[in-house]
Amino acid sequence: MGMPKLHAMLALWVLALASPASFALDARTDIDRAVELIREGQFAFARTYLAPALVSPYISSGERSRAYYFRGFTFAAENMPVSARKDFHRALEFNASNPAALVALGRLYAGGTGIEQDAELAFELFTQAADLEYPPGQFHQGYAYLLGEGVEKNLLKAREILAAAADEGQVFAMMSLAASYRAEHTDSPEPELARFWYENALEAGEPKAQLALAYMHSLGEFGEPDQSASFRLLVAAADDGVPEAYASLGYAHFAGEGTEVDYAASLAAYQKAADAGVVGGYIGLGHLYQFGYGVKQDKETALEWFRRGAELGDVQAQLRVANLYLQQQTPDAGKQAVYWSRLAAESGAPQALNDFAWILATSKFDEMRNGTLAVVQAEKAVAGEASAAYLDTLAAAYAETGNFERAVEVQRRALDSLTEEEADLRGELENRLQYYQRSEPWRE
């Protein structure tokens, strides 16, 4: 018998001795190795170990579900939500009670990431995971009750669920429970309870709790504003690796809150925030370059920084981009201003609605004006906040449509709404009123 034929027979004999259990063990080993790689951030490499396990006929449905979940996790981590969604669905096909997959899929639906947003379905998925006593599922379910996303807002229910998840060591539940006692979520704030849960989160390893406590001190939620205490907490948070803290430190150095005014330190802090991809860092740097604080004034550089934040969907950055384009006073720049203002207005924020309406109503370039749309946007802004500035914009919008009688009426309301701090604006608003009384629109 020739050697090649003997080797082939030996290989078949070894293969025959191998049991299905040994193949299953190999597949499980591959999955465990993939999990280690995921923890190391080597997502693509992890998928090479998961691939054979996914097609192995020797593992259970539960193990296959686990493998699909982990591969979906790697896709989500690398911003490939469509692939992640498919794998999370596959994980649930093999095990409908896979709580990690339920939560992961729910998060995609909640955020509308790679899928049409569906808050109600997300809440249902979170609830299924919570019913399996899975702490992350409990957290997301409680958080949905806190915000009223996919379910009617219920503060007491939110706290009950979040407390249970916090008791299981979920730091995000601790953070959300703390937030539930602050003015943004309740008409009866309890700052000491908020402090208690933030400190618990910090002790459990969440350094962002220091950032939240810094904001509470800065806003005077514990009594009088304490900028020094806020600054110390911001420094501690930055030292503990919280990049958002650098953006707040940049402002503290810029405004001299809790420390001395130091534009160089502000620039350095904002740069660190920007290097970490924090939008506040982009906006801070843009502001320094726009006005020349600590650097040579450079509006082009400012525009570049603002644009980076704007492209990430930040409304304030979008408005700053629009404003810089408006200052250029050219038709092409005006089109850019309209584009970015429109994007900002889609957020529904009153300031963004107002700024967009002002451009549409008052631009000196005919192609940029749209009185009808300006009225719609300005009315939405006033519905959110009937300030003198927003009423002033609504009046200009009515004037652009030729409804000068309504423009005069609204402009008078704007004048009556001026606060003591806005007294210096009275002359400007009265000047526009005279235009409308002469049946003339306002042009910027």
Question: Could you characterize the architecture of this molecule?
Answer:
The structure is a single chain. The chain is an all-alpha fold and 444 residues long. The chain has helices at residues 3-17, 20-39, 43-55, 61-77, 81-94, 99-111, 119-131, 135-147, 155-167, 171-179, 191-203, 208-219, 227-239, 243-255, 263-275, 279-291, 299-311, 315-327, 331-345, 350-362, 371-384, 388-400, 404-416, 426-437. Helix 9 packs antiparallel against helix 10. Residues 8-23 have low confidence and may be disordered.
In brief:
The chain is mainly α and 444 residues long. The chain has 24 helices and no strands.
Query: Ends: how far apart?
Result: 98 Å
**Rg over C-alpha atoms, rounded to the nearest angstrom:** 29 Å
The proportion of residues forming helix, as a percent range, comes to over 70%
Counting DSSP E segments of at least 2 residues, the number of strands comes to 0
Give the SSE order as H and E letters.
HHHHHHHHHHHHHHHHHHHHHHHH
Which keywords apply here?
444 residues; mainly alpha
Record the SSE blueprint.
Elements: H1 3-17, H2 20-39, H3 43-55, H4 61-77, H5 81-94, H6 99-111, H7 119-131, H8 135-147, H9 155-167, H10 171-179, H11 191-203, H12 208-219, H13 227-239, H14 243-255, H15 263-275, H16 279-291, H17 299-311, H18 315-327, H19 331-345, H20 350-362, H21 371-384, H22 388-400, H23 404-416, H24 426-437
